[in-house]
Write a structure and sequence with these properties.
This protein is an all-alpha fold. The protein has 6 helices and no strands. Helix 3 runs antiparallel to helix 4, helix 3 packs parallel to helix 6 and helix 4 packs antiparallel against helix 6.
């Protein structure tokens, strides 16, 4: 995802984000890694670059991303998603969820930058 937006990604950022996969560290209990990863991407793309800059657009975009995630994918908690439609017991693998989350993320980022 980051390579699509920025051409390259610092390997340390990849390591940092990896800890959020599987509902935070593979516990499958906390926020979905696809959602938290999307929030990190929005922060990098729209967050303030200098002290004192506004966070309004970033926060509004994160709220839209979360709302769309809830509407189109389901709960934000990994365990609830795995107990439902996604994961080893679900009807679809988590990779399908990630693809949907990335599509939503790109849409809300495009909306934010076109506004």
């Amino acid at each position: 995802m980051g390579e699509h937006l920025w051409g390259q990604v610092d390997p340390e950022m990849v390591r940092l984000a990896a800890a959020f996969g599987g509902g935070v560290g593979g516990t499958y209990q906390e926020m979905c890694g696809a959602l938290s990863g999307g929030v990190m991407v929005i922060g990098l793309q729209l967050g303030p670059k200098h002290p004192g800059e506004t966070e309004d657009l970033m926060r509004q975009t994160i709220a839209r991303y979360r709302d769309r995630f809830l509407e189109e994918i389901g709960p934000t908690q990994c365990a609830a998603l795995r107990d439902g439609l996604y994961g080893p017991e679900g009807q679809e693998p988590c990779s399908v969820l990630v693809q949907r989350a990335v599509r939503i993320l790109l849409e809300v980022l495009n909306e934010a930058t076109e506004a």
